[in-house]
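Cross-check.
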Amino acid sequence: SLLAASISPKMKRVRFVATTSPEVAATAGMPGAAAGKPQVVLLKPYDEKLHELPSDHLQLPEEIVSFAETFAWPLVLEFSQEKEKKKLLFERRPGFDRHFICFVDSSKEHFAGAKKALAQLAEQYRTDAFFIWLDVSNAANKPVLEELQVTEALPALRLVVSDAKHGKLEKCKLDQDEETSARLQGMSQEAG
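Predicted model, tokenized:
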């Protein structure tokens, strides 16, 4: 499609595909496939798998680009030394300069609930920051724990804000008193 061709150069990470086949649309899980209506759907290989752009926003390429820039990224990403995941941590995107990091222990009961609670928070503040969980039981993550001085009860939170223009990096420990820690653990258990 001419529209997809005009948008693709602006969005290097996102592959645009056009189809008029209801069968292909249905196989991809496109919600409007049965009705045969025109739609733009973003398919992702991680967390949220599919996002549909409302049909009233299909007119301008800028609206589609904005939609893709907002929803193309993982909602929450694991901090990892793995090359592909690490690349996503530092690629420019909305909220790129603010990393909200939740330190959790994958061997503890609250792990799944903490991740779910973080995903709910990330959905609410999707373009304001990038949400990351870091497993403290992974020895490869020890340097990050030391750099950000994570010594309090888990889950622990840090906000890292970068200002490339001025060469500044601020590392903020979010208030973690016993009450806050208990609330986070409670939120983790409720979400789990």
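The chain is about 35% helix and 20% strand. The two ends are 43 Å apart (CA to CA). Passed to J.P. for a second look.
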